[in-house]
Please model this.
Amino acid sequence: MAGIGLADHYGVLEVDREADEATVKRAYRRLVLQWHPDKHANNREVAEEKIRDINDAYETLGNPFKRGQYDQQVLALERKARGYRLDTTMIKPRMSIPKEFMLSPMGHPDKFVRMVGLSLFVQSRSDVKMDFSDFFKDAKFSLWWLPEINNMCRLRPTSTAGVGQGGGMNFNFMLHRTCNVSEVVLSPGTMPDNTNVIAVASPDYQGAFRFESAQFPGHYLAYKPPTHLRMVGGIVDDITTIDFTLVDYTKMFNYITAEEVLFPAVSALGGDRNFVPLNALRSDANVVLYFQNVLRKAMWADDDFETFFESRSGEWDYDVVKCRVRLRPKYMQLENSLRRARTPAEIAAAISAADNYDVCLLRLETLEAVLCALGQPPSQMADVTLMVNTLDAQKKILVAIPKACEKDVSFRHLMTICAKVAAFGGDQPDPKVAERRDETARELGDLVADKIRYDGVGENVPLSVLTTLCHMPLNWRTCGERLGKLVARRLDGQPLETVLPLLRSVVAALPASKSIAERLADISRGLFHDADPAAVAEALEAMVSGGLCLEAVAGCLGRVLQSAPFSVVTVIVAGLGEIGMDSDEFRTCSHFVGSARTSLEALPPTLLLRLCVAATKSPCIAETTLDAVAGAAALTLPAWSADDASKLLLAVAKAKTTIAGRGMVSLYSRASEVLSTRLQEFSSVQLIKVALAIGQVPACRLLLESVAIELAFSRLTDLPSAQLHLLTQSLLPLGSEHRAMIGVLDHWASNFAETTRQEALLTESLGLELVRQRRGELEGKGQLNADQLGKLAQMLAPVAPHHQMFWKAMALRFVGQGEAEGVADALTHSGKVALQNAFPCGGGPEFEGKADMMNAVRNPEQFFRERAERAAAERGQGKEGNEDGQQYTTNNGMPLEPRKEWEGSAVHAAQTTSRDRSGSASKRKRKRRRSPATSASSSNSRSMTRKKHRERTASAKEKKLEKGRGRDRDRGNHKDAGRDDESSVHKLRKEGKRSRRSETSDAHDHGVTALDDNASSADENLQEQKRRLRQRERRMKLNEEKEKAKADQEDRRRQDAEEQGKRRLLRERRLKLKQDEDKERQQEAEAEAEKRRLQRERRKGRVALDIVVEDGPAIVQLD
Model:
C-alpha cells in the first residue's frame, strides 16, 4: 500500500484482503493482547503507537461501509498506478452526483472538506477534536447547476444555500492568466471567473469527479496536504489530489465510531462515577441501533468488549472478573494523552482542549514536563491554531503549578520549579502569559516563604540560593525575620563583593524586605574599610536607592571620591540631593561633581537630568553643581529627546538658585537655537513645560513666541482646562497684545460662554440640583472650579484688563444665565481672596456685569434669591397683563370677538371703496406706520394695544347704533307726516349717503389699525415659536446625551456583573478543587489503613485474602 499512498489496514492486522469478519476479529484480538502497553513497560511509547494503528485498522475493516469505501479506493489507486483509464463518456454528472454530499479527496478516505467561518479546510476526525454531528454539519455541500453550459455549476455549503441563482455562499477563487494557483474561500460573489466550475467524471477513479474552472480550462479544485483546498493548474504534483468522491450525506452515520457510541451510553448510565455492567450497556438504544444499522452484525460478546476496552485502556477501566466498565477520570485521560504526545503542538492541543479543573489535577511530574515542553512561545510563522493552543495551554499550566506544589514538595524541588517558571515563556512572552507568570511567581513565593518559616531551612543553604531567594517575590512578612538571621550567619566573614548581590536583591524588594535590608546595610558598612572603592560606591548606591543609613552615606562617599567611578558618585549625589540632603560632607561631594566639568560632559542625558531635578530640592546642588551640569547639557542638547529636554529646562528654571552662571546662559542660548526647529516633535504638555521654563529668560524670547504660536494656533482646542491654565500662565510675559495671548483669551471666553449656556439649558430641563452634580463631575475631570477661576482672574487682571469678551464671559460664569446659578456660591476663602486681589476695592478691569459678579461673590445666596424673586415677579406681571385684556385670543394674539367684527367691517369697506380710495387708504396706512404715534404704540405693551382697540370698537358700535336710531326716527316722522316734497327726500338721501361714507371711512381706519396690531403680534408669535423650537431641539439633544450616558452606565454595570460572576465561578472551582483534594487524601488514608489491616490479618495466619476493588471486596480462597 505504500506505493499508492494509502494506509495498509490489512497489513497492520496481518490478514489478507479476502479475510472474512471472523478472521479480522481474531487477528485484532491477538494483536491487542500482544501489544498491550502494560506488557511493554520498557517500550511503552512504541506499544501505544502500535495499538493506535491497530485500532484505526479495525475501526475501518470492522465497519462494512468503511471497508467497502476503503477497498474501492485501494482498487482505484492500484488501477491508476498501472496506467488504467476509465471511459467516462456515458457518465452524467447531473444524474450521478447526490443532491447533498460530502467531498472526500481520493486516497484520503478519512478526510473531508469542511467550512470554518469563510475558509475551507480538508480535515479528518483526528485533526479536529469535536463531536460527530458538529464535524459533519460543516461538511455538507451541494451544487447549483447553471443552464449556460452542460454540467456547469457552483459549489456551495448546503447550510448557506439560498433560493435562486444569487443566493448562498459559493466557492470563490482568484485565478489570472499569470496566476495558476488560488486559495478557495466562501463568498456571496457570483462572478463567472471566480465561481463557475464544470463537473467532470474522473478518468482514474470509479465514482470520483473533478471540478474544472469554467473560465480557466485546465485548472481544477485540488487538495494539497495537510489541509489546503486550492484551485490549481498546469502540472499537478504527486501529493496533490484533484479527484474527489462525493459521499451521499445520508450515509454520514456510517462514519461514526464505536467509541463515539459507547462513550455517551456509558456516561448516561453513570459510568463517569461507577462501574456499568455490560448487560446494561447492551440494552442501550443507541448501542443497539449502532450494531443493527452501522455494523450490521450481532451484539459483541464479552470477549469482544474486553478486547475493545483493553485496547483503549487509557480512557476505559474494564473489570474482567465482573464484566463491567467505567470511564477513567478526565485528568487521567489527559495524562495518557500527554504521555502519548510526540510534539509540543500535540501537547498544547491536549492541554487547550482540557478543562482548567482537570489540568489542576495532573501530577506535578507531568506539569513539569509540560512546563519544559511549552517553555518557549510559538514562532511568528506558526499556524494560527498552534499559536492559540500554545498560549492557552501556557496559561492553564501556570495556573495549575501552584496548586500541585501545595502538596509535599521539598524546598530544593520548589526552588527548581520557581526557576522554571521564571524562564517560562522566553524573554518576550505574550502579555497575558507574562501577567499570569508573575502571579504564579507570587503564589510560589508564598509557598517558599512558608517553607522558610515553618519547615526551617537549614544552615547548609548556599549563598547562591539565598541570592535567588532575595530576587523572588517572597512574602517577607512571613519569612523576613527567619531569612534575615540565616543571611547574617551565612555572611559572617564574607567580603563586601559577596554581600553586594544580596543587598541589591533585598533593596529591589523594598519596602516589604525592610528588616533584612537594614541588617545587610549594617553588615556592608562594617566591610567598607578593607573593600575596593568601586564596591563601596556600588554598596552606597544601593543604600541610597533603598533609603538605608542615609546619614552616613555622604561621609563614607567622601573617603572614596577620588578613586570611585565618577558615574556612580554622580548617582549617589543625585539620590541624596533628591531627599534634600544638606551637610558639610554632602557639600564636599557635590562640589567635587560640579568641578569635574569634563567628566560631566561624558555622562548620559538621563543622569544629567537627574542632577538638575535634584537641584530643585537641594540648595547645595543648585549652588555648587547646577551651572556645570547645565553647561554639559548644552553641549549634548541636540541628542536629547523632546521629553528629557522639556524636563531639563523646567528643572533648571525651578532650581533653588538665583544666580545664572555661564553654563545656564549657554543652555538657554543653545535651547533657543536647537528647539525652535523641533517644536513638531514635542507634545502639548512638553511645550507648556518649555514655555514655563523660559518665560522669564530674555534670551529665549523668540523661542517663547514660537512655542506660543504653535500652541495657540495649532493645539489649543485639544488642551484640557488645567493645561490651558498653565499655558496662560506661561504666556503672561508676552503681554495681552500678543496674538497668541489674544487667541488664548478668546478661547477662554468661548469656553466659558459655552459652559454657561449648557448649564442654563440643563437647568430648564433637569433642575438646579442635577446641574450642580454634573458640574462637580466635570470639575473632577478637569473643568476649572470656582477657586481656579478666581486665581485665573487674579493672574490676568493686571495683564489683560481690556479684553472685554473674556471678562464678560467670566462674569457670566460666576453669575449664571437665566435660571441657572453660577459658581459664585462654590467659592472658598482662597478663591474670594484671589478675586479681591484681582479687583481691589472695586478696581481692576471694567466690563459689563462686573457689579453683578461682585455682588454674587460677596453674598451669593442673597444675590441668587433676589434674582429668582425678580424673575418670578416679572412672570407674574406678564400674567396679570394678559388677564386685564381680552381673555380668549387667536394664534397671533388678537382678541377673538373684536377681530371678527374688524373682519366684517374690513370686508364691507373693501366692497364699497373704489380703487382710488383704496390707494389713498394705502397711503394713509403707510403714513400712519411712519408716524411717531404709531411707532410708539407698537412698542408699548400688548395690554395697552388691546385697551385702545376695545375703546375704538366701543366707539364704532355706539356711532352705528346712534345712526340707526336716527334713521328709524326719520322714517317714522316721514310716515306720520305723509309724503314730503322732493327737496326733503333729496336731503334725506344726501344725509344717508354722507353717514354711510363716514361709517365706511371709520371702519376702514379701524381695519388698518387692527391690521398693524395683527402684524406686530404675528412677528412676536413667530419669534416665540422659533425660540421654543430651539429650546425643544436643545432638550432633545440633552436627552440623547443623557440616554447615552445611561446606556454606558448600564454597560459598565453589566460588565461588572459578568466579572463578578467569573470571579464567583473561579472561587467555586477552587473550592471544589480543594474539596476533591481533601476527599482524595481521605480515600488514600482509608486505603492505606485498609492495606495495613490486611497486612496484620496476613501475619495472623488467616487463609482468606480480600482483594480490594473499586466497587467492593471479592473473596478468593487460597490453598
